[in-house]
Amino acid sequence: MSFPVIDQTQTPLLSLGFSVPSKEALVKQYVGKKLHQVRTPRLIVDRSIVTKNCRRLGEISKQQGVKVRVHVKTHKTVEATEIELDAAGTDAIVVSTLAEAWYLIESHLTASKKLNDVLLGLPVSPDKFDDVFELAQRVPKFSIFIDHIQTLDALESYYEAKFGNDDSHRIHAFMKVECGNARAGAAINNEDSLELARRLVSSKVVVVEGLYTHAGHSYACRDNESAVAFLQAERDAAINYREFLAKNGVHIKNCSIGATPTVMAAGVATKQVLEGITELHAGAFAFMDRQQMATSLADTSDVAISVLARVASRYPERGSILLDAGGLAFSKDGSPQGGFGEIIGREHWKLDKIAQEHGVVTEVPLEDFEDAPVGKVFLVRPNHCCLTAACFEFYLIIENGGDEIVDVWVPVRGW
Amino acid sequence: MSFPVIDQTQTPLLSLGFSVPSKEALVKQYVGKKLHQVRTPRLIVDRSIVTKNCRRLGEISKQQGVKVRVHVKTHKTVEATEIELDAAGTDAIVVSTLAEAWYLIESHLTASKKLNDVLLGLPVSPDKFDDVFELAQRVPKFSIFIDHIQTLDALESYYEAKFGNDDSHRIHAFMKVECGNARAGAAINNEDSLELARRLVSSKVVVVEGLYTHAGHSYACRDNESAVAFLQAERDAAINYREFLAKNGVHIKNCSIGATPTVMAAGVATKQVLEGITELHAGAFAFMDRQQMATSLADTSDVAISVLARVASRYPERGSILLDAGGLAFSKDGSPQGGFGEIIGREHWKLDKIAQEHGVVTEVPLEDFEDAPVGKVFLVRPNHCCLTAACFEFYLIIENGGDEIVDVWVPVRGW
Q1: Any idea where the D-serine dehydratase-like domain is (chains A, B) (predicted)?
Q2: Domains (ranges, CATH) in chain A?
């Protein structure tokens, strides 16, 4: 079926000359300062923990003999991507936006060949094809997701209009398949999915990379055993999908599976659990957070980020302290433990109520007020690292739990 | 009691040369384009509705004979502030961050005398005094909140160290008082609050502006009657507070009260309901959202903002459509109606599940898929305008429900 070529949309980042805040100016302003000397709220990243977490992923990859693809949506920075690639021993990333793709592909990581393989991790809409083919010129391998036949129709129309019969611009694509969380992905045992797979493998504009699943529902695991069970289920779903296609004459070999809990679980699973899997992907593992702690596969020593906040006021009569950090610093995401984060070193306090800029801490015992004067800074462990990090224009970097700033990272924002 | 002068923190915006994206470049890129031609997700603002909403506030102000102070935290832009000031007939704003204060005070609004009165709407911590006194030089009146005696102690120490006996730099301050939502504010019938009030009125570094309350809990109202009851309760709480102080010999005349639901309720309340109140404040009224619709004081025609999103994929077999907008476009805030927003013109669809960049729409009837191809744009009415607007580096402006872009507004971010 033909699909009209539609208007193409631009990544605003480009016409704005990559207008992220200047790292140089920020480094000059912040490096060498202590945490209590900076404006709050602010995201603090412990680089040593990021490195440790990425090495853990690298060890899992080596132990299981499976390549990893690291998700950069959690941090959206060049610096953390470099640590991920180095420590996890890979040259492949997945991005959640085209802005991330541009930012990283135009960085030194591609020039230095550390980054060779970029996947856009959301089914691409046809208005973005200009960007897709432009980016594909700038990195050895650029891949997209296709999980509906209209997208392939649109891609073929676009390709023909742009390149005619020249087949040298074929684009790499994963077929995204649904494996239980009903977020994205083509359904199994479905005639339309089969038709899509058939069309993909025979398409003149696509190079099929494999099947791709994401076990988002694995966040519900609460111990190693259930995490391994989720991993096993995700692996089985991917392999079943491959067999469903094969039985119907469509052969797609590679299977990429993962989510931080299941990939962490791969570290405690036998090799059989991953049989037939060619790639693991994960994102939140680099920063970690309370949601990951709830899965039991991470503890406080694995959480690399925290929100620096200050005591803005104190209400001993109601056992409450007001922090100058609210929904725009923590995000409104929850976690199974409750609250919007926990105050490091004061875990018995509750951060149960937040407004845009207000963090209302309750259940503060009277005796705790003496050491919590107005202006005092605290670090707060967030619920969900991806959404919390996205609140900040830049991150201040520390090392080994210290309180001196050693670097500043500037993430890319927007779409 | 003396409080040490602590290290001062800087607003990063300044050393970065106000590094918000360039309005000029964005206007060039977007004005004249149709909505379907721009990258998604993107915040769309209907300027006509903003103006209408601000005029409604102006009418309430005139009808009640009470000055209004408009909150700019919802939009954080110069353009919407100007509409608010013009249409609501005031020269007073409240900001939620020092970045907002800098951005607006350094804009043409102060130079043109449209903006003369700026209040920082969060109890200020002592590391921010440098900024406070610097900003106070740049606008006729700059006010802060004080609701704990340590803050006043710290302010007096700072003032003495900086200005000695020169009393020409006294800073305007509201005493923030608690009126039922236990977020911020000094408690009533409390010896410490009384001591703070006594110290404030006799302080040589402060000019007391009045008492200030915020009826955040009024969002629970569901009809005009209960909204007026919340307004009455907030007014009574403020007046009671004033009387509690007066009975104890501390006389503070002015009372500023409000939140969007109670201020909207003032439009249907008698004059007696506001007796003794000298100022009303509100913020979300300019944009409105589903949370405000839930209070019954706004309907769909009052909601000025929406999130433009595209069909990224389609899963008819599970009645689901994937939009290319998730938690980083809508925020994760909820609303009493449920879901993370509603698709305009397709209100029977459900947006009940979102991930970072995925908007999973469910309950899509099979017959609706024909008119929802991949790439089609939809507008989504958000739950909470303040948190949704904060997701975007810039807003595209339309008028009268049209689909042509007429302007671009650039909000200020961070702290």
Answers
A1: 304-399
A2: 47-289 (3.20.20.10), 305-409 (2.40.37.20)
